[in-house]
Amino acid sequence: MKRILVTGGLGFIGSHTVVELQNEGFEVVIIDDLSNSKIEVLDNIEKITGIKPDFYQLDLRSKQNVQHFFNENTIDGIIHFAAFKAVGESVQKPLDYYENNIGSLVYLLQEMRDRNIDNFIFSSSCTVYGQADELPITENAPIKPAASPYGNTKQIGEEIIKDSCTAHNMNAISLRYFNPIGAHDSIKIGELPLGVPQNLIPYVTQTAAGIREQLSIFGDDYETPDGTAVRDYIHVVDLAKAHISALQRLLDKKNKQNFEFFNVGTGKGSSVLEIVNSFEKVTNQKLNYKIVARRAGDVTAAYADTTIANQELHWKTEKSLDDALLSAWKWQESQKG
Ligand code: UFG
């Protein structure tokens, strides 16, 4: 049985990936510092899969912590989610973002080098493309200057991994996520935003639930069919499964280069207004919203060309946008009281 380290394994995408790993027969050990996650998620993973993953509450910003972990554990592959992820906050606290997102990554890669551990999957983002010149966005689209320190940590992270793969004969895949949404079918795990949500879907569900008074739609003067910005919203379970496919590719030594990167989206763009309308339709809820000014740093439109990911990872999305929105709503409802 292969033993996989999942850093940030109690977070939104991490927890869904742990479930899929266990479903596929992998043994999982989680590292999470609980800075943006809850320990209850560990029990909920066990409720879904029947298996409680090993867990270390540990801060990866300490090289000593990282060394200590690897002294105690034999690992066949790493899926690295642990990172700060709030775009706006990263502008206020760039050094925290560089320390956490880059420092932790370097320590992990150093341990991999020193202990001959291979097979690394990195959480990257479509943010590396900025406003792409052509849509849908292929993996060949140029990397644009980062719009935020957060985005920069993803770009720099990919460079660091690429250089490490070249120098130290390691193999890695970077997955460039589009917009992950939704919750597990069991409604036992989902997104747990801290404080006021920055992302669209948790803001929508909290507004429908009466926690927020009104959704602000940031801009209706974009060059899109209805004027609101367009994104590629992917069900988190489909996204989680892409990690298993990428990991299997590395374990089977099917990768064509030491460092590869793939777009993980649905290939379909939806505008903010389309999301609002679909949400209202599938949940039978009425959303209170207003149009406000654009949000700084937002791009007009981003959606993936998934051809290469579909072919190379033997992976494709299985769930619809409606599935994702309904599960997000059920998850919100399950959080009452
Ligand atoms: N939006 C609103 N109102 C809200 C929140 C969002 O109208 O209250 C709009 C945004 O303006 C955007 C769309 O909904 O057009 C999606 O916004 P999100 O914040 O949910 O997602 P982003 O596309 O902005 O963010 C994603 C990832 C980040 C990544 C970023 C790069 O979540 O990790 O893309 O642009 F950095």
**CATH domain fold name of the domain at 3-183 and 233-265 and 307-317:** Rossmann fold
| Radius of gyration over C-alpha positions, nearest whole angstrom | 19 Å
- Shape verdict: globular
Low-confidence stretches: none
CATH architecture label of the domain at 3-183 and 233-265 and 307-317:
3-Layer(aba) Sandwich
Helix content: 40-55%
By helix and strand content, what is the structural category? alpha/beta
Question: How would you spell out the order of helices and strands?
Answer: EHEHEHEHHEHEEHEEEHEEHEHH
Give, in spatial order, the strands making up the sheet with the most strands.
Answer: 3-2-1-4-5-6-11
Q: What is the CATH class designation of the domain at 3-183 and 233-265 and 307-317?
A: Alpha Beta
- The total of beta strands comes to 13
Largest sheet: 7 strands, parallel
Per CATH, the superfamily of the domain at 3-183 and 233-265 and 307-317 is: NAD(P)-binding Rossmann-like Domain
- Which molecules other than protein and nucleic acid are bound? uridine-5'-diphosphate-4-deoxy-4-fluoro-alpha-D-galactose
Strand content: 15-25%
Number of helices: 11
Mean pLDDT: 97
End-to-end separation in angstroms reads 40 Å
